[in-house]
Design a protein that fits this description.
The chain is about 50% helix and about 20% strand. By secondary structure, it is α/β, with parallel strands linked by helices. A 4-stranded mixed sheet has the order 3-6-5-4.
């Protein structure tokens, strides 16, 4: 199960962000992974970029995902897998991570990492994947490697 973010809906206010958070918290309560994504059919992406502007559409998604990450970590989530280079950067910045300890490799070029966050007792496990790395089974392999 996954929740698709839509830049047009995000531009209208907080409702979609709140729905995504509720989805994630429900999945976590069920001890199931929460997949929140913003990828879409190229025509749909292009249409959103034309309506909002390329930069604004990207910022809306990155902001929503980074704020979801912060909120979920503050709720006790200890593992995050973030796909997309710019999104990964936004999440790391929002979490105020200044250093990562490199852990076990998931796929060539993508390891699990650990960060110690101020005000949190347990470290955060974090996988940051840019678009060019990882095989087709990357997401399932990532959590197998961490277990």
């Amino acid at each position: 199960a996954g929740f698709a973010l839509d830049p047009d809906a995000l531009a209208l206010g907080d409702e979609q962000w709140e729905q995504a958070l509720a989805f994630a918290l429900d999945r976590i309560e069920q001890d199931a992974p929460a997949l929140i994504y913003a990828s879409a059919d190229p025509a749909k992406v292009k249409a959103a970029q034309q309506r909002l502007g390329v930069e604004r559409a990207g910022e809306l998604v990155e902001c929503a995902l980074s704020q979801l990450a912060v909120t979920l970590v503050n709720e006790g989530v200890g593992r995050l897998l973030v796909a997309g280079g710019e999104t990964s950067g936004a999440v790391v910045s929002a979490l105020r991570i200044s250093a990562l300890r490199i852990g076990e490799q998931i796929d060539p070029g993508v390891p699990w990492t650990q960060a110690t966050l101020k005000g949190h007792t347990a470290p955060l496990s974090l996988a940051l994947k840019s678009g060019n790395f990882g095989g087709v089974d990357f997401f399932t392999r990532a959590f197998e490697v961490l277990s």
